[in-house]
Write a structure and sequence with these properties.
The chain has 1024 residues and is an alpha/beta fold. Helix content is 40%, strand content 18%. A hairpin with a 5-residue loop joins β16 and β17.
Length: 1024
């Protein structure tokens, strides 16, 4: 068989290959015979029924690989007896097909393109795959006659046909003869612009020769050095090169200098000036084109810098305003003044500025005072104030009091301070304040929490492995990672975190976005050889993160796709937790987890413990982010990532993804499964690290609402996004219901603030008078009743907050209801506009406001279930302009419940939910119970921080401090626990890793999650 000619091999395959092949056999024999006994690799583009591959396998008995590719997907089903023959079905010019070919080989001695297709495809294939040709190899294009036909993008004089391309390639071979300093790529500018191909100068210079054989074109490849043919003499001094040159003028001396010279040096006596002018003109033309390109690039760069600088300036101004307001509120608060003594003593004892700056270089880079940074940001981010030490006890407190005594001048002064604390905040409050001042909480930081509850031991790993074996389904999870010139150590860490996964059924799909670091490329190539689960595609041009991510997506074969940045880390049990969740609920379509950050020293901090799916919070920032895991078929349906959203491409992807699914199939895993690397350029370190990301996110959100047909506007802020829903042209009537008894001064402040500040115009006020007998208030009522939009309703029955409100609803004329306590005061004029615009959205139930105490600390920023046995106001006692955990106190978000001290809801929905429970919950928890019933109907209750009011809590009815009131409170507490018991301990708008002891969203010791690896470890919280 090794002696048979190609013609003989073709004859034995009659009927299996096209007869057009006969016209090429002799030339193929001549061109390829030198490879016949070599271990060649051959790639044929366009294989039809595969017969030609079988012939090549016989013609090259020592071939290592005979590979074919065809756009017809049926070719992927072809079977061959020879194991060396491989076929890939797909578009040869797609990144996915290229990646599949590279899995077999990235180098071929022979590439043959069946040119019976469009000129654009032929040219794109050459631009992409000539780089795959080994040194000394050949690239053959057959059937080029098709490029004369219009339907194949050709024509006799068509300048951009495939034939014209290869004719131009001939000019490229002769570039040493041009006589001008000009890049080879300039010849192909028209082809590049028309077909979007990129031809690099270094690649074109490896074209050794072009040979046309009728409708076949042969391109040979060799190194640049091999193409330097030395002096080429047209007419010699002693002997002519060819007959006929003897007739040349005696004074003619034309030499072609070596290829390394600037070009052709022509010395003639006849036309030196013309030659020089021509060369100068062409040189100037090239120079002008270069300068034009540089100018455009600089112009584009300046525009981008201006946009980024504007975004940074806006962010800095907004942050400055927030910081000034924060400072004013802090210094004006009674808590700040009363705890000044303890704070100064405590921070001096428990804060190490030098350690803090060394541990957190981003603080040092910011130039901010370390103590100020810790108070404003570091404490809530879980940063350590000093080197971690064991928790102090009585000795620590004793030492602090000794310091107080010494500094304040004795026992009497210290006792006075302590008495003030006890009087204002009670024993438990004073204890908390003392702990904060002395730094006891900070001695137990996030690092200790991680060591105690977020480190796997050998037993847990064994349980996880046993659980993996018992999973009914074990889906392949494709981890997508775009990379570009990543620091090698960072990339190695990210890759190793995938390879360390306890769950084995994964693949890592890496797209290198034309990195310029050769060491990086070598490392990626090594990975592919070491682990068959790792796939890499090397992009030929830098397309930025969206296009690179799509290239990685093209490599994915798994049912699920997880997103991993090239410098971050996955927890070793991350993919197991995902797989277990999917196994428990196969209908899931999107899974996300909690996350944290780690600094340049490997210290973890700033945990982001998220709630279950929370659309309003998601519209405030990308709460899915990491770890986000998506169904691959839906990603394909929406077209993957979109260019133009760089910096927020994940956010845009998630927004388009949720439009395609039932949001009940979004699942939250309440575990830290993802670690962001924090460095100066990362978005993990600062929202201003990539200011264009905020602009992209704003655009993505705006388009999301437009696609859904929701009239809303989006504003980017330093801590996320603010969504404003449009109000209808005709404003619906809102009935504001205010129960009261006496307390003229409180009620007057409430009513007058509504009348003076409220920008929303169409409202009525219903005052429910519950037996007032103060002449002053009765006189005030008489005056109010003269106003068109105010009515006073009398109800003399014993105080029952639920009953009073239900009664007023029966009298209300409004399409919407607003429940307002008589001890509230409006701060922001847009409060009612904000609440109504949200309450009118179809899926939203009750809308609550942000309420502040008169000292400007938080009274209400949503309600968290489970604290205090039933519920407590979120962030109660925090600074009014404080952001809360991950700025949640500043962001619109859903909560399980909001307070009826200021609540707006559609009247129809209020009635559907059954109103307030006036039988069992006369005073306490009526609003919580009502909100939970609204939630049961499928609506979301929303907290809106832009509706801002003061609240003098319980000022008119007093505290529950009598035996009768305490007995009623205990009964109402028992009612709530019996009615909502399980839900109270598993608030889906909270997180089981956060405490139920306080409403400050601090860490739970221990967390309320099962040990990882238990049967219910993944589902025990998120199903509540």
């Amino acid at each position: 068989m090794a002696d048979e000619s190609l013609k003989q091999l073709f004859a034995t395959h009659q009927g299996k290959v096209s007869d057009k092949w006969q016209s090429y056999l002799a030339e193929y024999e001549r061109i390829l015979s030198r490879f016949r006994q070599e271990p060649v690799r051959l790639l044929e583009i366009g294989v039809q029924n595969g017969g030609s591959l079988e012939i090549w396998a016989k013609f090259f008995p020592r071939a290592e690989l005979i590979m074919g590719c065809d756009v017809d997907l049926r070719c992927g089903q072809l079977e061959f007896d020879d194991a060396r023959i491989k076929v890939v079905a797909g578009d040869i010019n797609s990144a996915a097909t290229q990646a599949r070919i590279q899995e077999y080989s990235s180098t071929f001695e022979i590439i043959i393109d069946d040119g019976s297709h469009k000129s654009s495809d032929i040219i794109k294939s050459f631009a992409k795959y000539f780089d795959f040709v080994a040194e000394g190899g050949v690239y053959i294009v057959e059937d080029l006659h098709c490029s004369y036909w219009k339907e194949f993008e050709g024509g006799l004089f068509e300048p951009y046909s495939a034939m014209s391309f290869f004719k131009t390639l001939t000019d490229n071979v002769n570039y040493p003869l041009w006589g001008v300093d000009m890049a080879c790529t300039s010849l192909f500018r028209g082809f590049s612009e028309k077909y979007g191909v990129e031809l690099k100068n270094s690649l074109l210079q490896q074209v050794h020769s072009i040979e046309f054989l009728n409708s076949m074109c042969l391109v040979r490849k060799s190194r640049l050095e091999s193409n330097r043919l030395g002096y080429r003499v047209i007419a010699g001094r002693s002997e002519p090169v060819e007959e006929g040159h003897l007739d040349l003028p005696a004074n003619l001396d034309i030499r072609v200098l070596p290829q390394s010279s600037r070009g052709l040096e022509v010395r003639t006596a006849g036309m030196p000036e013309l030659s020089e002018q021509l060369a100068d003109s062409e040189t100037r033309l090239v120079d002008l084109e270069r300068k034009e390109k540089e100018y455009k690039e600089r112009q584009a760069g300046l525009y981008l810098q201006m946009e980024e600088r504007d975004a940074q300036l806006i962010a800095m101004k907004q942050e400055l305003i927030a910081h000034r307001a924060l400072l004013d509120y802090v210094q004006d608060s009674r808590t700040w003044r009363w705890t000044d003594l303890f704070r100064r003593i405590g921070y001096r004892k428990t804060f190490d500025p030098k350690f803090y700056l060394e541990r957190y270089p981003d603080v040092k880079q910011s130039g901010m005072d370390p103590i100020e940074h810790f108070v404003a940001y570091g404490r809530r981010e879980g940063r350590e104030p000093k080197p971690p030490t064991p928790v102090g006890s009585f000795g620590t407190v004793t030492g602090a009091f000794k310091s107080i005594l010494a500094e304040e001048g004795g026992l009497l002064r210290s006792i006075i301070v302590l008495i003030d604390l006890l009087r204002s905040e009670g024993l438990s409050g004073a204890s908390v304040r003392m702990d904060q001042a002395l730094g006891q909480e900070e001695l137990i930081g996030y690092s200790e929490w991680v060591r105690a509850y977020d480190k796997l031991n050998t037993d847990e790993r064994m349980r996880i492995r046993r659980r993996i074996e018992s999973l009914k389904s074990q889906p392949v999870i494709s981890v997508v990672m775009p990379t570009y010139n990543t620091g090698l150590e960072w990339l190695k860490g990210a890759v190793q975190s995938v390879r360390n996964q306890l769950y084995p059924n994964w693949e890592l799909c890496i797209a290198d976005d034309a990195s310029t670091d050769p060491v990086l490329k070598k490392y990626l190539e090594t990975l592919v050889r070491e682990d068959e689960r790792i796939k890499v595609v090397f992009r030929q041009e830098n397309g930025h993160i969206s296009r690179a991510s799509n290239s990685a997506l093209d490599l994915c074969s798994g049912e699920w796709v997880a997103l991993l940045d090239h410098d971050d880390l996955l927890a070793e049990h991350a993919l197991f937790c995902v797989a277990a969740a999917i196994d428990d609920n196969p209908s899931l379509q999107l899974v996300y987890s909690d996350e944290d950050k780690f600094d340049q020293n490997g210290i973890r901090f700033d945990p982001n413990f998220k709630p279950n799916w929370n659309p309003e919070l998601f519209y405030s920032y990308n709460m899915i982010s990491h770890l986000g895991v998506y169904r691959k078929d839906i990603l394909d349906r929406i077209g993957g990532f979109r260019a133009g959203f760089e910096g927020s491409q994940d956010y845009d992807l998630a927004l388009r993804f949720i439009e395609q699914i039932d949001q009940k199939n979004i699942h939250h895993i309440p575990r830290i499964l993802y670690h962001w690397r924090m460095h100066p350029e990362s978005t993990a370190s600062s929202t201003n690290a990539k200011p264009y990301a905020r602009v992209s996110g704003e655009k993505a959100l705006q388009e999301h609402f437009s696609r859904r047909g929701v009239a809303a506007s989006v504003e980017g802020l330093p801590y996320g996004y603010r969504v404003r829903y449009d109000l209808p042209e005709k404003l619906p009537l809102v009935s504001l219901i205010i129960p009261t008894r006496n307390e003229r001064e409180l009620l007057s402040a409430c009513i007058e603030s509504i009348l003076a500040k409220t920008m929303y115009s169409n409202y009525e006020i219903l005052i429910v008078d519950n037996g007032s007998d103060d002449p002053e208030i009765l006189e005030y009522f008489a005056g109010l009743e003269q106003r068109i939009n105010i009515r006073v309703l009398r109800d003399e029955r014993p105080f029952n907050f639920s009953l009073l409100n239900n009664f007023a609803v029966s009298e209300a004329r409004g399409e919407l209801l607003g429940f307002i306590n008589n001890d509230t005061e409006v701060i922001s004029g847009e409060w009612l506009s904000e609440m109504v615009s949200m309450a009118l959205q179809d899926e939203i139930g009750a809308v609550g406001a942000k309420l502040l105490y008169p000292d400007k600390t938080v009274q209400h920023a949503g309600i968290v279930l489970g604290i205090g046995g039933v519920a407590e106001n979120a962030f109660k006692g925090a600074l009014g302009f404080g952001s809360g955990l991950h700025s949640r106190a500043l962001r619109i978000s859903s909560f399980s419940a909001v307070t009826a001290a200021c609540l707006v809801i559609r009247k129809q929905l209020f009635l559907e939910a059954g109103g307030f429970d006036e039988t069992h919950l006369a005073v306490a928890f009526g609003d919580v119970d009502f909100c939970l019933r609204v939630r049961e109907l499928g609506y979301r209750n929303v907290f809106n921080p832009y509706a801002l009011l003061y609240h003098h809590e319980s000022a008119s009815r007093g505290e529950d401090n009598t035996p009768e009131k305490q007995a009623r409170f205990d009964a109402e507490l028992q009612c709530m626990q019996e009615r909502w018991g399980k839900l109270l301990l598993n608030d889906p708008a909270y997180n089981p890793n956060l405490t139920l002891d306080r409403p400050d969203f601090s860490l739970a010791w221990p967390p309320r999650v099962s040990a990882v690896g238990d049967d219910d470890a993944i589902i025990n919280f998120s199903r509540a």
